[in-house]
Amino acid sequence: CCADAPPRLASRATPAARCRPDPADGPLPMPLPPLFTEHALRQSLNDEFHARPPTPLQSPQLISYLALHHEDEAPGAALRHLITLGEQLGQPIDAEGSHRLIDFGSFQLKWELHNEFSSYTFFRPVAPGEGIAEPTTALAVVPADWLARLPGKLMAATHVELRQVAEISPESVMAQLSATGQTVGATVADGAAWVFTDFAFEDGFSRFLVIDISLTRRQAGRTVQRLVEIETYRLMSLLAFPVAKEVGRLLGGAEQRLAALMDRTNAARVPEDERSVLAELTTLAAEVEHSVARTTFRFGATRAYHSLVMQRIEELRERRIPGLPTFHEFMERRLRPAMNTCETMARRQEDLSSRVARNSQLLRTRVEVELERQNQELLAQMNRRAKLQLHLQETVEGLSVVAITYYASQLVQYMAKGVKHAIEPLTPEGLTAAAIPVIALVVALGTRRMRKHLAAAEAGH
User: Fold this and answer.
1) Rounded CA gap, 347 and 153, in Å?
2) Helix residue ranges, H only, 74-133
């Protein structure tokens, strides 16, 4: 429907609004009742998608950018400090949200809250030629006492000069370049602007010069935003480099300890030696895992920041200026080695953790096998003892049958002597002799039956 819309509809309204009927054409139709239950986060997610757009800029303009790392800062400290600036300059500021674009008259301030840092971008329009003979910055019109109390630790600080080609020509800049070869430059936005920098700090600030050839206001805003993001993410990505060097020293000692422990494992001959090595391996594993837990976030963040640096450079659509390295070449030569070091240390740390875990498992298996062997020997000894006890028990049972038979035969003899006249012609001695086999058989059968009954009762339990 927008193809036939009148020119006045090509405004800043949303695409949906551009396709709505004109009220002059008649009454608007009533909106239909909602057919779906809307997700609670749908609107906020869509707002986040459209958040932080580049600020359209008209050259000439001075831009100053600060990024402060959230180091032991209370949540919300940056926004509260921003509200105090609004109160100081008579500009009320909403106490919610994570980004603001505020016009204070003499300058604009764009504030953004990120995961690890807060960024402040100050925009100050200037007249053509202003600030060239007598250099100035956008911070010159910002209250100094408020700047001095910004919460956090300064991570990135840069000044960007957006100048028209009539003010500063690329040829004049090229003629003033030093012979040290530190300047980085390229044409960007398909030749619509020239950009120069050396990524060096001067009075604590890095500096970019953007010469506007044919930039639109939005192109200028996007170019400046990409430049300050490159500077911020470049420094944030390097936060892992000192950590990588520290991890490298730790890994060197840990790898030597692991090799020595493996040598001791191979030389171990008794279980006590293996258990001693296993205890030291467990201690080493705990130290390595502590290092992994402490550095995983930093190494992961570095990969993300470096990816953003290279992405922003690609979005510049730079072209080479003869005699100067491009931003991509400069980052590949200066930033890539540090990133490779961080990636190598992260992989080396993970590899060491895996090796320690494998060696610990191997040694633990050896200890368990030795314990199993000892247990088998103990069970074999117990089995031999049980068999010996069984043989002794059977011997005792045989002796018991003899003893019981003897005492029972004596009873029979005593009884026969008491009734010897009644049993004639049998004698007590003959009757006793005849009773001995019967008594022995009865006792043996009774003992055997009792043993079977006890075995059955034990098996039932």
Assistant:
1) 30
2) 77-89
